[in-house]
Amino acid sequence: MRAFAALTLGFLLWGAAHAGSGDPKFINTGKVLPSDLPFSDAVQVGNTLYLSGQVGVVPGKMQLIEGGMAAESIQALANIRTVLEASGYSMADVVKCTVMLADMSKWSEFNRVYERFFEPPYPARSAFGASGLALGAQVEVECIAAKGGE
Fold it and tell me: At what angle do helices 68-86 and 107-117 cross, to 10 degrees?
């Protein structure tokens, strides 16, 4: 019962801190993927931006960049940067990334690219293997970005 009370109090405090953060703003930049797909590039709630996963597609086309894992990783992260910047954020605002790899043995190859896009302190990150990604991609990355209060 005590744990339930603490959890309830924590939830109420969290809700009070986030009250008035505004309605979600659904963003389709059209700068990477066509805006008629059944999802948004990102959704902003208050000062937090939730990005949809990005694969290494050539902007404006529904085709993967050629060149394998490293090229796809570079393009996926560049696509993330494009959506962030179109929404008024930067790579420095990213606080969490989720990485999906079609082949976990290529984790270190992805890391070498990842380190070129982020600087310490690095965002929190999860990585896991996936049995299939959109368009047959080798990597997909989604991120959460946040800015300090105003």
Answer: 30
User: ∠10-13-17 over CA atoms, to 5°?
Assistant: 135
Strand segments, DSSP code E, in the chain are: 25-27, 42-45, 48-51, 94-101, 124-129, 139-146
Give the pLDDT confidence of 127-148 residue by residue, as tens digits. Answer: 999 999 999 999 999 999 999 8
User: What's the token pair of residue 51?
Assistant: 């990005």
For the beta carbon of residue 139, count every other beta carbon within 10 angstroms: 30
> Is residue 15 assigned to a domain?
no
Look at residue 3 in the predicted model and tell me its pLDDT. Answer: 43
In a domain? residue 78: yes
pLDDT for position 20: 46
Q: What is the DSSP string of 12-37?
A: HHHHHHHTT----EEE---SSS-TTS
